[in-house]
Specification:
single chain; 152 residues; mainly alpha; Four Helix Bundle (Hemerythrin (Met), subunit A); 4 helices; 0% strand; globular
Length: 152
């Protein structure tokens, strides 16, 4: 994996983390357990899944075997998620000898899944009656290696 590939992957990871932060900032009290119906995961359950996916991403990049999320309250789940994202970012940053095939698997698997669920969290905020604030994403303060609360 060359410098440009690492830079792009790390930036996409940071963009996903930024979008997730928007969905979680100032969330109303009932948001973590919001039930949209139809078997849609609650925001807390979606965030726990995202933590497991970020850990899986780390394992694809040579890190430890993934473990499930353990936090059962939103504040703890947020901390656990961003720790997992930081670990994945560090693996990307330090990746030596990781081939393009692995990066493609990361992009089409966990990175795409994480981005999908970040959007899901935003949609659930709207359905819960508390839409996320509007942001001009092309000029948002997104930087590889910078994750909440550093983005605030």
């Amino acid at each position: 994996m060359d410098y440009r590939e690492k830079r792009l992957a790390r930036h996409l990871l940071a963009a996903m983390a930024y979008r997730t932060a928007l969905a979680l900032e100032n969330a109303p009290e009932g948001y973590p357990g919001f039930d949209a119906g139809g078997g849609v995961p609650t925001p807390l359950r979606a965030l726990q899944h995202m933590t497991a996916v970020a850990r899986f991403m780390t394992s694809l990049l040579g890190g430890p075997a993934p473990t499930p999320a353990t936090a059962d309250r939103l504040e703890g789940a947020i901390d656990e998620f961003y720790r997992a994202v930081r670990d994945a970012d560090q693996r990307l940053k330090d990746a030596e000898g990781v081939g393009a095939d692995v990066l493609l698997r990361v992009a089409q698997g966990p990175l795409s899944d994480l981005t999908h669920h970040a959007g899901q969290l935003c949609l659930l905020r709207r359905l819960a009656g508390s839409p996320v604030r509007k942001v001009r994403f092309p000029s948002a303060p997104i930087r590889a290696g910078k994750f909440p609360p550093e983005l605030a």
